[in-house]
Amino acid sequence: MTAVLPILPGATLGVMGGGQLGRMFVHAAQAMGYRVVVLDPAADAPAAAAADEHLCAAYDDPAALDELARRCAAVTTEFENVPAESLRRLARQIRVAPSADAVAVAQDRILEKTFIRDAGLGVVPFTVLHTAADITADACGNTLPGILKTARLGYDGKGQVEVNSLDAVREAFAGLQGVPCILEQRVDLACEVSVVLARGSDGAVRCFPVGENRHVGGILDITVVPARVSAATAATAVDMATQLATALDYVGTLGVELFVLRDGRVLVNEIAPRPHNSGHFTQDATVCSQFDQQVRALCGLPLGSPALLSPVTMLNLMGDLWARGTPNWPAALAQDGARLHLYGKKDARPGRKMGHVNVLAADADAALAAAETVRAVLAGD
C-alpha cells in the first residue's frame, strides 16, 4: 500500500453519526487541532453538541452528503449502519475511511460470517436462513441448539433469539418478521475477548491490549484489561484481528470480538468498523486512545503507541442507574483510579448507554474489584 498525503491540523473532518462514539471522535480531533462536522438526523445528537458544525439531515440525503464533502477534507463513520452507498458517494469526492466495502461487510451478518470464514479464520458454525423454507432438519441440524440473529441491524443483543429446536427456529424467525437471518451454533464459552486495532493507509497495524468482556442482556457491561487469558490465547486473538484488518484492506479503528472456547479454540464473533465500546479503556489507560488512532488513520498520520500504562476495567453506565435519581457521582469518584466519562444524553432509559467509568489499578483483578465498588456506590447500594 502507498501512504496518502497527510491531512494536517487546521483542516475540517466529517463524521457520519452523532452518537457517543462520534462525540469522542470529535473531542480527539479537536484536541489535535481539527474542526469537525457531524452529519446526523437527530437535533440532539450527543456529538452535535461538541462538534463545530452539525448537518441535521438523513444519512442518505444527497444534498447533505455533497455539502459534507464540500466542507470536509475527509470523512469517517461512528457506526456501521450508515448506508454504504452514502459512503461511496462521499468517496467519489473526498477521502473516506473506512471504505464503503469494509463497512458493507460488517453491516450484514451473512456477508460478515462468510468473509471471516473465507479469510481462513475460525468462526462459529452457522446456517444462512433467507426464508422460512430454509428451516429444515438437514440445514439446521448441526447448528442447534443455537442463536437466531437477524442478518442486518442487530447490535447490543437486539435481533437475537436463543433456540433449541426446529419449531423454536420457525417461531423465532416469524417473530423477527421473516427477514434474512443466520442460525449460529451455541458454543461452550470460557470467555469473550476483543481486540481493538488501528490500521493506516500504509498498511501499518497497531493493536491495543486484548480486553476481556462481560455482557449482561446482550450489552457490554465490563471490559477488563489486560484480559485474564493465556499469553498464547491473547497472541492468537491479536493475530486473527490483524489478519481480518488486512483482508478488509481496512483503514481506521476496528473492533474485533472473539470467543474463547473451553477447549482452547479462539473464534471470531463479529467485527465493528469503528471504535468499539470495549476500547473505551484506551482513553485513560494507553498512550493513544482508539479515537486518537481513528483521527490519525483518517488523516494519513503515523499511528500512535497503543501501549498499556495501567491495568484497567471499563464499566458501562446504563440508564438503569438513574432509576433512583441522579447517581452518586462523588462517592464513585472517591474511588482511587476512577475516571468518569458521560455522553451528554438527556434521557436516561433502561438499556441506554449513558457513559462509562474507567478504573485504573495495580492489576486486572484489583481494577475489576474497584469497578464493582464504583457500580455499587453509584446505585446507592
Please describe what this structure looks like:
There is one protein chain. The protein folds into 3 domains: 12-96, 3-Layer(aba) Sandwich (Rossmann fold), CATH 3.40.50.20; 125-185, Dna Ligase, domain 1, CATH 3.30.1490.20; 189-378, ATP-grasp fold, B domain (D-amino Acid Aminotransferase, Chain A, domain 1, 2-Layer Sandwich). With 381 residues, it is an alpha+beta fold. The strands form 3 sheets. Strands 10, 11, 12, 13, 14, 15, 16, 17 and 18 form a 9-stranded antiparallel beta sheet that branches. α2 links the parallel β2 and β3 (53-55). α1 packs across α11 (290-299), α4 packs antiparallel against α5 and α5 (100-107) crosses α6. It has 13 helices and 18 strands.
Explain briefly what this protein structure is.
The chain is built from 13 helices and 18 strands. The chain has three domains: 12-96, Rossmann fold; 125-185, ATP-grasp fold, A domain (Dna Ligase, domain 1, 2-Layer Sandwich), CATH 3.30.1490.20; 189-378, ATP-grasp fold, B domain (D-amino Acid Aminotransferase, Chain A, domain 1), CATH 3.30.470.
List the helices and strands and how they pair.
Elements: E1 12-16, H1 20-31, E2 35-39, H2 46-50, E3 53-55, H3 62-71, E4 74-77, H4 84-91, E5 95-96, H5 100-107, H6 109-118, E6 126-129, H7 137-140, E7 146-150, E8 160-163, H8 166-175, E9 181-185, E10 189-199, E11 205-207, E12 211-216, E13 219-225, H9 231-247, E14 252-261, E15 266-272, H10 282-285, H11 290-299, E16 312-318, H12 329-333, E17 338-342, E18 353-360, H13 364-378
Parallel strand pairs: 1-2, 1-4, 2-3, 4-5
Antiparallel strand pairs: 6-9, 7-8, 7-9, 10-11, 10-12, 10-14, 12-13, 13-16, 14-15, 16-18, 17-18
Helix pairs in contact: 1-11, 4-5, 5-6
